[in-house]
Every structure is written in structure tokens, then in C-alpha cells.
Amino acid sequence: MSAESWDGMGVRELGRTGLRVTPVGIGLAALGRPAYITLGREEDLGADRSVAAMRARSWAVLDAALAAGVRYFDVARSYGWAEEFLGGWLRERAIAPGAVTVGSKWGYAYVGGWRMDADRHEVKELSAGQLRRQLDETRELLGEHLSLYQIHSATVESGVLDDQDVLAGLRELRASGVSVGLSTTGPRQADTIDRAVELGLFDTVQATWNLLEPSAGPALDRAHRAGLGVIVKEGVANGRLTAHAAPDALARAAREHGLTPDTLALAAVLARPWAGVVLSGAASVEQFHSNLAAVHVAWDPDLDERLAVLAEEPETYWAARGSLTWQ
């Protein structure tokens, strides 16, 4: 780990990639499109979900993150205009390639047409053709800033980790100097992570870990020990671990420590020794600063036992996540 730091955040290398990151990164899943499955968006965003308004909000959050020292930025082809927002911001701020680490993902296409009431907002296709098409699209928007390209929501059941055409495409991309990774989803995240480690191709894994769904923890530890960089998404469980809906045990513990629920929830992620980056999905500058405060929390190990009651069975957690409405 480097001795350098910005605003108290140590700079580290993300696994074996050599990419430089900070403990907190910014994900634009909630800012690149008008609707998403995060609780409380009406309060967080208000009624103006125009492209111009969302671009301005994205840039404000990105500016705040950069000023605070954040050096990892995460987007995806399916996040609406997120790649366009991020690419435009990088050019406008004259940020040189390599000055920050940029990761994107392929496999889902955004089909919501910038409508709140769309029947479908994204469509999944984990094929070699999709990889080629979306890589070209991503490169058009992010250019040389692209540092990491990830399979979006890989699962063992999808067969993508056994698709030789996809794996060959990823090997070719990796040989060109772009790190390759995968994000995981669903109650069998651990199986997907272990399979990815077994393949020896992937440089990073991005997985859901939070106080409600900690089941991937042991597999993420194994991945970390194997040299993969670990990126944690959904650390506040799509808003379920924020002031919008925090369970009583988390709300009480946060109050006792003088923190907000989201700060304490993200501090729990940062306390895991295998966590390389935890993503803030903040929809406003205020939310970002609340998320960022997690880096200054001295984790009390007694909290692990106290908050263990929040953990749900993986099937229960993912069923609840799947029932969240786009808002």
C-alpha cells in the first residue's frame, strides 16, 4: 500500500492490477438514468430527471469526490448515460488517463429510453457479440481512461464463465493492457467468485456485501488471497441501510456512535480486510459526504456481533432486492 493519501484516505493497489484506488469509490448506477431501484429517490433527486439535470448532478458529485480524494469511478453500459456523463466530465476537467482509475461493465443494455415508466429498463445478454459491441461503445465514450472492464452480474448459472468465445475476448482485452473483472449477483455469489478464481483470468471481482447480505464474505477473502482486487457494491443495500429504511439495530448503533446509518453500514464494509474499494452510490453531494465519513470510523469489533442480527438468508435478501420498484 502506498504511503500517499488524500484527505486521510490511503492509496492502495487494487489486487494484482497495479491500478491505484482509494477505499471509497463512486458508482454512477443511481445517477446515470432517471429511474433506479434505490429507495427514497423522490426525496434524493426531486422531480427533475432530465438528462441535463442528471448530468449536472453527476458532475457535482464527481467534483466533490475528486476534491475529497476519490480515485476510483465505476460505470456500466446499462447505467443510462453514465459513461457519457463520466467521459464528458473527465475531458472537461482535463483529467489525464491514468490519473484516476475508471471501471465499466458490459452485459446489460439500457433500454429504458429515459422514461420513468418504461416496461423494461435494461436487458441482459452475456455473449461474445455483446462484449465486442459494448466494448466499442465504452471505448468511444471513455477512450484511454478505461482501466478495468467487467462482466456485469455474472452467475455460474448463466454459463458466461464457461463461454470460450467470451473468455477469449477477455484474454485479448487483458493482453491489450485493460484489466478484466466480473461483478456478481444472486444468492450463489460465492460459487461464482470461486469459479472466477479457478479460471485464473480475472483481476478483480465486484460483489454485493452488506450487513443484510454478508454471505459472500468468505469467498471474497479467498479471492483477495488469490490476488484479485475486491470491489464492494450495494454496501447500503439499495437504500435499505440508510436513513430511508434503516433497521432498528443499525439506527440505534449509528445514533450511539454519532453517525448516520449509511456511514456505519459502509464502515462495516471497510472493516473487512479483503475490501479494496467500497462504492458510494450517492445521488447528491450531501449523501456522498455522509458515505465518505465511513473512512474515518474506527470500527468497534463488538459491532460485528451486535449487528449480526441484521443478516438475512441470501435467498430472502435477493428476493427482496428483486421486488424493489424502479423509482
TrEMBL record:
This chain's source organism reads Nonomuraea jabiensis
Domain of life, source organism: Bacteria
PANTHER family named in the record = D-THREO-ALDOSE 1-DEHYDROGENASE, NADP-DEPENDENT OXIDOREDUCTASE DOMAIN-CONTAINING PROTEIN
Enumerate the InterPro entries for this protein.
AKR2_Oxidoreductase, NAD(P)_OxRdtase_dom_sf, NADP_OxRdtase_dom
What protein am I looking at? Answer: Aryl-alcohol dehydrogenase-like predicted oxidoreductase
Which residue intervals define the domain NADP-dependent oxidoreductase in the entry?
58-300
- Which Pfam families did the record assign? Aldo_ket_red (PF00248)
